[in-house]
Amino acid sequence: MNEHVTQQRLNMDWMLKDLASSVPFTRHVVVLSADGLCMAKYGTDTDTSDRLAAACAGLQSLSGAVAAEFPDGDGTMRLVVIEVGGGFFYLMAAGARAYLAVLADDGVDAGLMGQRMRDLVARIGQHLTSPPRADGQVT
Fold it and tell me: Which segments constitute the Roadblock/LAMTOR2 domain (predicted)?
């Protein structure tokens, strides 16, 4: 991992912690690139964050295909919310080729989570951008 990516990840840690601590019942927060690489994480281990990032990339691609079916839309995914047994999953576009994903337990205030995620993306969206890759390396 190059120095730019390492510094970017360290800079995002406190921002993700702020999101998690401001919304009770937040379990995991992950920032991922469009191709499924974990860029930053809070409240989770590396294996879990890597699995979430890979799954989110597939979900993002699927939701983009659904978005393309709306003739007046721009074909992009903005927010996906999935309620599952035990809690909620949120995936939000968070910058060019970057996404913010959150897993939260059943007791979460779904509206508050969506609002805080939007606030975070609006505040620091430029930091939540995945740089283009050349030959598998971040440039």
Answer: 13-104
